[in-house]
Structure formats: C-alpha cells, structure tokens
Amino acid sequence: MAYVWTGAKATLNGRQHMEIEVDGKPWFDGAASCVLFGNCGTVTGGIHAFEHAEPDDGWLDVGVVTAKGMFGWGRVLVRMATGHGDRSSLTKVTRARKVNVKLQHKTLYELDGGERPATRQLKVRVRPGAITLAAPWGSEDLP
Questions:
Q1: What gap in Å lies between CA 103 and CA 61, rounded to an integer?
Q2: pLDDT recorded at residue 81
Q3: CB 96 within 8 A of CB 64
Q4: Per residue, what are the HEC states of the chain?
Q5: How many whole angstroms separate alpha carbon 22 and alpha carbon 47?
Q6: How many CA atoms are closer than 13 Å to the CA of 18, on its beta-carbon side?
Q7: CATH 2.60.200.40, applies to 2-129
Q8: Which pLDDT score is estimated for 28?
Q9: CA dist 109 → 34, 42, 66, 91 (Å)
C-alpha cells in the first residue's frame, strides 16, 4: 500500500524540475513527478517497474515518470501493468551504479515503504555483493 499511497500523492503534488546524473553524466533534466530506483523488476501488486532488473546483477535500475495528473499516471500504470512501462512516452529508464538527483523543491521520499525527511538532493549507489542471504533450503535443493 505504501507504493500506491506514494503514487497517489505524486499525482496530486504534480511535477517539479529534476536534474539527474547517472554514473557522473547528465541523464535527465526536466519536469517529472517521480523518480524510482530498484534492483528488482516488480513492485506491489506485480506491477513491472523495471523489465531487466535483477537483485544480484550489480546494477541499479532508474526510472523517471513525467506524467502529469491522474490521466497521465493512469497511462503509465496501464503500461507498467502489462510489463511495458519502459515503452511509455511518459517514462525514461536506465541502469547505473551511481545516481545523483537534484530536486527543485524539498520533497519527502520513501525507502522500502517508509517515508523519509524532505530533501532537495538524493545520492544513490549500488554496492554489488553487499548483502548475504541465508535461506532454509534443504541439501536436496543445492546444485
């Protein structure tokens, strides 16, 4: 529900000017209503945000939504629900190791569904192999 709530707020808050650098190079400079980072392809409800995202590939997937209002967001969500969010004229997607976002206004942001204090700048980077997972598999499941 956190993602739905954030999406709803984004449609009401409108767009703002953003400058986004990807791996030290300018990538996006314009009005947008949302910037999203992920290392997995699907978000709540099975919506495909990033077609090629893998949690263990060492890349951070980055998306910008330029939709304005409920109609524009509806178009984006339909594309995402059908697995083609990256093909919308209202989205721009790339992959990176390091991302720097400068926002026109201080804005609240979310991290894993939890709201964080408002900021005008976000610095995001991926650290490959930074997390070790342990799973309760039996020896019969090992390769």
A1: 19
A2: 64
A3: no
A4: CHHHHHHHHHHHHCCEEEEEEECCEEEEEEEECEEEEECCCEEHHHEECCCCCCCCCCCEEEEEECCCHHHHHHHHHHHHHCCCHHHCCCEEEEEECEEEEEEEEEEEEEECCEEEEEEEEEEEECCCCCCCCCCCCCHHHCC
A5: 24
A6: 27
A7: yes
A8: 97
A9: 10, 19, 17, 19
Strands 34-38 and 60-65: antiparallel
pLDDT digits (tens, 9 = 90+) for 30-83: 999 989 888 876 666 666 667 777 778 888 889 898 888 777 777 777 777 666
Read off the tokens for 4.
Answer: 């739905």
Span 70-123, pLDDT tens digits: 777 777 777 776 666 666 778 898 999 999 999 999 998 888 778 889 999 999
Residue 78 token pair:
């339909």
Band (pLDDT 50/70/90 cuts) for residue 22 is very high
What is the spatial distance between Cα 59 and Cα 50, in angstroms, rounded to a whole number? 12
Q: Residue written as tokens 């808050």?
A: 13
